Amino acid sequence: MIKTQHPTQPGFIGAVDNARRKRLLDLADLTRSSKRQIIKLEWPDYHEQERAALNDLALDGPKTIIPLARQLSGYSQLLRAGVPMIPTAEYSTLVMPSLNRALEADWSATSPDIGGDAIAVAEAKPRRLSAYVVVSDMLRVQNELLVGAWLEQQLLASVGRALDKAALVGTGANNQPTGLLNDTGINSHTRASNGINSLADMAAMEKAVADNDGEDNAEDYFWIADTATRETLRNTPATAAGTTFGRSLWEPQPANNLGRSGVMGYEAIASVHAPANTLVLAQKRSMALVDFNKLQVENLVDADQAKEGFRTMLVSGYYDYAVLEPNGICKAVNS
Fold it and tell me: Kind and range of the H or E element at 48?
């Protein structure tokens, strides 16, 4: 799993490695170009990340590289929370087997029949994302490198937002992934009272994941809600069997972080993409975003727009979202 939480580095354009330096120079050149061009933006692939992780000799070159997941984590709540991003250089459908945690070895003297159970898999295929970014000629003339950095940030912000939205509410149609709120294969818990999330409901969601052999690591849990549900839970005292715990039901920090004692002790995010009354308990490793390493920028030449001092960049890339372990997620539903 790629770690996505990193400290902020000072400087006008942030952290830089050789790949990012080339990206920014290429973007600066593209903003100067008066003809139609297409450039591919390169990030360290899986093999480069692996080599950097294993590089222990100072003479072998710089150990610091900036993977796409690290930069996208500034604009994607899921990546920032720790959901992994899988990079691949293969432009084809990926078939990823789902781990069966309920499979149990036999103590008998003879080898048991493996049975006729099918292997469950998650599929990820290249799905195109695209966006237009408008650049001012005035900014371009004043500071090309900063405009290149801004352009990179803007395109990553648009991609990060689209990935989060697809992961939550993707319909599975019109080239969209199937988001977890529309996924019928994951666990669900029916609330005791429609529209109300109680401590008992939240504990039952945790139990549903464990009962279905979906629990991997308790520290890997996190909550996903819409902003209105967060507001309601923040103002709802945590009570059980007539006892008030003195905390609200929404405590986003883990219990062992900064000395704070959350009711459930798990991280939490509130997404603007989630519909009303959304509440999901998920393990980060049970899902993944997939990067097919095909992000590119095209300079669209428009004479009328150029006269007004602007130019348009078309950004396109290929990504997907997949649930790797359906039993590692539980969503609350009404009866």
Answer: helix 46-54
Dist CA 209 CA 127 (whole Å): 30
**Residue 297: how many CA atoms within 13 Å on its side-chain side?**
27
Residue matched to tokens 């150029």 = 306
Residue 254 lies in a domain: yes
Instruction: Decide: 24 and 289 in contact? Cβ < 8 Å.
Output: no
Mean pLDDT of 100-110: 78
Q: What is the CATH number of the domain that holds 319?
A: 3.90.1690
Q: Around Cβ 162, how many Cβ atoms within 10 Å?
A: 20
Percent of the chain with pLDDT over 90: 44
| Least confident residue range of 38-47, 86-95, 116-125, 313-322 | 116-125
Whole-number Å distance between alpha carbons of 12 and 7: 15
Rounded to whole angstroms, the Cα distance separating 58 from 120 reads 44
> Is 81 within a domain?
yes
- Establish if 10 belongs to a structural domain: yes
The 10 Å Cβ neighbour count of residue 46 is 15
Domain that includes residue 76, residue range: 1-98+119-335
Write the CA distances from 92 to 77, 117, 124, 162, integer angstroms. Answer: 27, 26, 9, 21
Contacts 24+ apart (CB under 8 A), 303-306: 306/137
Q: How many domains, the chain? A: 1
Measured CA to CA, the distance from residue 274 to residue 83 in angstroms comes to 17
Rounded to two decimals, the pTM is 0.85
Determine, yes or no, domain membership for 105.
Answer: no
